[in-house]
Design brief:
There is one protein chain. By secondary structure, this protein is mainly beta. The protein has two domains: about 150 residues, Lipocalin (Beta Barrel), CATH 2.40.128; about 110 residues, Lipocalin (Beta Barrel), CATH 2.40.128. Strands 1, 2, 3, 4, 5, 6, 7, 8, 9, 10 and 11 form an eleven-stranded antiparallel β-sheet that branches. Strands 12, 13, 14, 15, 16, 17, 18, 19, 20 and 21 form a ten-stranded antiparallel β-sheet that branches. It is elongated.
Length: about 260
């Protein structure tokens, strides 16, 4: 039987009660009861929407989860949510009483959000391998797969694969290479012609890059100059990011892609 989602508006939040007519997920206990912290607490976990087989996959709407002493909070793709959980050994239960903010979302973001929120209370067990968290649910093929997010996930060398220019997200020209390297507080690289560098700051999935400065060598082709200029401008539009097995994706304030990168 499909999940039943009820919404109760309270003081600017939506209390979303997710369960089923048979009471699936109703066993979630209150915070602080039997909570263990074996690897689960501490990181901000970013949902891998494709690996999780969400009904709608829109990775520009980053979904996160943070487990902290019985409280589960995060972004559901558009709104912030919070609920409680209990963990004992490998067992995990998430309360079906999930509160959410009331930001208006577009259709894709709403679909990602509703799919994720409906699945959370069906959690049954969890396992962690490296930076990967797998939450097994009561529905076959509907596990939630996360990867740990931290500033460390960005560190190291990257090759830019695409970037935003007004009107479209375009691939880096064939035969051309744009690079980026993130250290603790600095991004640097080559824009295809000139070297560039600048500061960056992160806060969970939020990030701001710049101001970025570059050398002023003349490029051999006008197309290289244009591509480099567009890429550096795209860095200035970055507001959030997500890291998965394919690489890192940076998003603009409107949720659109700003830059994508892969490991060399």
């Amino acid at each position: 039987m499909p999940p039943v989602i009820g919404r109760i508006v309270r003081c600017g939040v939506i209390v979303m009660v997710v369960g089923s007519a048979l009471g699936v997920g109703a066993t979630g206990a209150s915070a602080g009861s039997g909570v263990t912290t074996t690897g689960l607490e501490g990181p901000t976990w970013v949902l891998d929407q494709k690996a999780s087989n969400l009904e709608v996959i829109a990775p520009q709407y980053v979904v996160t989860a943070t487990f902290d002493n019985g409280d589960l909070t995060g972004s559901s793709g558009c709104n912030r949510y919070n609920t409680t959980y209990t963990a004992r050994g490998s067992r995990l239960r998430v309360s079906p009483s999930i509160s959410s903010t009331l930001i208006a979302c577009n259709q894709d973001a709403s679909n990602v959000e509703s799919s994720y929120i409906a699945r959370l209370p069906t959690a049954r067990t969890f396992s962690i391998s490296g930076d990967r968290l797998t939450v097994r649910t009561s529905t076959r093929g509907a596990d939630l797969i996360y990867r740990a997010l931290s500033a460390r996930a960005l560190r190291g060398s990257w090759v830019v694969t695409s970037y935003f220019r007004p009107g479209a997200v375009v691939s880096v020209s064939a035969g051309m290479t744009i690079t980026a390297n993130f250290t603790g507080k600095l991004i640097s690289g080559n824009g295809g012609c000139n070297d560039y560098s600048g500061p960056y700051k992160t806060d969970d999935t939020k990030i701001r890059i710049g101001p970025v400065a570059s050398t002023q060598a003349a490029c051999s082709q006008a197309s290289l100059t244009q591509q480099e200029s567009e890429y550096l401008a795209a860095l200035d539009t970055v507001r959030t990011f997500g890291v998965d097995a394919q690489g890192v994706t940076f998003f603009r304030a409107d949720g659109g892609i700003a830059v994508t990168m892969a490991r060399p």
